[in-house]
């Protein structure tokens, strides 16, 4: 006979987990008003017994056993991504891809005694120094993967400097220039050779005059202004192909101790002293034995020094200012110094916008050390002094051990070697 269902209350049986062998590990009986059943609480499973209780049977209830929570394993932090670095085209230094594609900016820098100390040297990728009229040389600083906080004093353009800036189609910053230079910039200063960034056009916007110095030695610019000006004149960032080969610093144990390079212009004598520890050439100039960059207060010390011999002559442009012209396309003798060692080779430039390259005696391209390069352009017949320091002595190689002598036929032990035969 079937049991009647009691309408006053319903018994909800919540069955716990089934243990090994199908034995129930526990169940919880909850009494509550019901009009068709009660949903199981979250975390509990509502289930029917596998066998219906027979007549007269009763349901039993027991507490669900508590389970020890297993702690979640501590997640392993994801490693920080390794930054992607590439070689800067003008220095071979490892830089970010963005820095490697920044358009080069070349700035003409004064070298009159009243202009020293100048600002911006240590941020430059390449520094050119060459003669100008009156025996006073002039610099051109080429910036690419980094920019200076300050650069100046900015001076006027010369044609041969334009041809070196054209090797990178650089933004060319200057304050006016010779008639020959200005004519070239008007004709080919919209990206054909360079991008003309004349102070006469952009003065008061991207150039400023400082109060600490008198004109014409007081025109300066800075990193932010230079980069904005580069955009304004039409220069675009993009990939560039390196013209020179670069390699890391030579190991310390292979570098020489000391060494000196000296070049002389009429109004400036330049001395480089090789420093083995830093693998740099510490630079000194007339009136400043330790040349300091006024922008950052640090010593000027390039990784590479190149001395080029070039033909210079009077320009005869009718100005009576004794300006010079140079035979920039061609080849000539060059000293190339890197890692404390100097070779005598050649320089070659095959076109106005073509790169100036350097070769050893065998005609093979030289490899420079990654970092800044100073190029000293000297008139033919100039006095150049180059003296490398001594190389470190090669480590003593022990003599190979002599084979052990064979025992004598009589079986006597071999005689001990004489002291003179002992290895030192």
């Amino acid at each position: 006979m079937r049991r009647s269902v009691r309408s006053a209350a319903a018994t909800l049986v919540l069955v716990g987990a089934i243990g090994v062998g199908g034995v129930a590990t526990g169940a919880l009986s909850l009494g509550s008003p019901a009009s068709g059943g009660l949903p199981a609480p979250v975390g509990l499973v509502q289930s029917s017994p596998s066998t219906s209780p027979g007549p007269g049977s009763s349901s039993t209830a027991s507490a669900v056993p508590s389970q020890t929570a297993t702690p979640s394993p501590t997640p392993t932090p994801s490693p920080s991504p390794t930054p992607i670095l590439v070689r800067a085209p003008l220095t071979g230094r490892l830089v970010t891809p963005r820095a490697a594609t920044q358009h080069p900016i070349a700035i003409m820098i004064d070298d009159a005694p009243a202009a020293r100390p100048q600002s911006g040297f240590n941020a430059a990728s390449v520094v050119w120094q060459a003669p100008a009229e009156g025996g006073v040389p002039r610099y051109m600083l080429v910036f690419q993967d980094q920019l200076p906080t300050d650069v100046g004093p900015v001076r006027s353009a010369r044609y041969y400097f334009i041809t070196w800036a054209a090797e990178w189609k650089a933004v060319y910053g200057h304050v006016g220039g010779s008639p020959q230079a200005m004519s070239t910039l008007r004709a080919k200063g919209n990206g054909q050779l360079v991008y003309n960034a004349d102070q006469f056009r952009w003065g008061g916007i991207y150039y400023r005059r400082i109060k600490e110095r008198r004109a014409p030695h007081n025109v300066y610019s800075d990193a932010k202004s230079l980069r904005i000006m580069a955009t304004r004149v039409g220069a675009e960032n993009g990939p560039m192909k390196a013209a020179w080969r670069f390699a890391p610093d030579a190991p310390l144990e292979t570098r020489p101790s000391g060494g000196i390079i000296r070049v002389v212009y009429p109004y400036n004598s330049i001395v480089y002293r090789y420093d083995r520890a830093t693998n740099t050439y510490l630079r000194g100039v007339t009136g400043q034995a330790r040349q300091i960059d006024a922008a950052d207060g640090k010593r000027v010390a390039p990784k590479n020094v190149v001395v080029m011999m070039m033909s210079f002559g009077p320009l005869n442009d009718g100005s009576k200012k004794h300006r010079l012209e140079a035979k920039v396309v061609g080849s000539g003798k060059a000293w190339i110094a890197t890692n404390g060692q100097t070779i005598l080779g050649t320089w070659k430039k095959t076109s106005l916008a073509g790169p100036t390259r350097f070769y050893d005696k065998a005609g093979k391209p030289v490899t420079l050390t990654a970092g800044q390069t100073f190029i000293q352009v000297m008139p033919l017949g100039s006095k150049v002094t180059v003296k490398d320091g001594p190389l470190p002595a090669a480590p003593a190689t022990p003599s190979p051990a002599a084979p052990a002598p064979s025992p004598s036929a009589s079986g006597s032990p071999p005689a001990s070697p004489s002291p003179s035969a002992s290895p030192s």
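The first strand starts at residue 10 and ends at 15. The chain has a mean pLDDT of 82.
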